[in-house]
Design goal:
Low-confidence stretches: none
Distance between the termini: 44 Å
Mean pLDDT: 94
């Protein structure tokens, strides 16, 4: 490999699933999360249903140690499996945004 990138990668996604397909969509998420969390570059990977948005909007939050690690994730067999699985669900909207992060610090909330 070449020179490793020094920046973290953060991804935020919003997926709006037809309400009648939420159960099926959730069944694909479980394996995806299990497999992704085992990837060496994965810092955080979670799917959550947005309770403020009709219970059929899913928010995805991801943090990766490097661009390379994130690229490997995109090429993974579990990603291919997930993408082909969710074709069975009616996805009403999907927005995915990637951030390249120079620094991250934890805030102390009093």
């Amino acid at each position: 490999g070449g020179i490793m990138s020094s920046h973290l990668v953060v991804v935020n996604a919003k997926v709006v699933v037809a309400p009648e397909d939420m159960e099926q969509f959730s069944s694909y998420v479980e394996n995806m999360v299990d497999q992704t969390r085992k990837e060496p570059a994965c810092v955080n990977y979670s799917f959550a249903v947005d309770a403020t948005d009709g219970f059929n909007t899913v928010r995805v939050s991801e943090e990766w140690q490097s661009e390379e690690g994130f690229e490997e994730h995109l090429q993974s067999s579990h990603m291919r499996e997930f993408m082909s699985g969710i074709r069975n669900c009616k996805i009403m909207d999907m927005q995915v945004r990637k951030y390249q992060v120079l620094a991250a610090t934890d805030l102390q909330i009093e």
